[in-house]
Specification:
single chain; 1 helix; 75% helix; rod-shaped
């Protein structure tokens, strides 16, 4: 069957990569919010 050739997944590496992705996304969102707030304060 085709299921015999399924590669094994390193779940610890997968979790580490996902956690890093979530952290970068979180900090990018926070940085964008800070920039928008500073623009609203100093440019309006």
């Amino acid at each position: 069957m085709a299921d015999d050739n399924v590669p094994s997944i390193d779940y610890n590496e997968h979790k580490s990569t996902f956690d890093s992705f979530v952290a970068v996304t979180k900090w990018s969102t926070i940085a964008c919010a800070v920039v928008l707030i500073l623009m609203a304060v100093f440019l309006v």
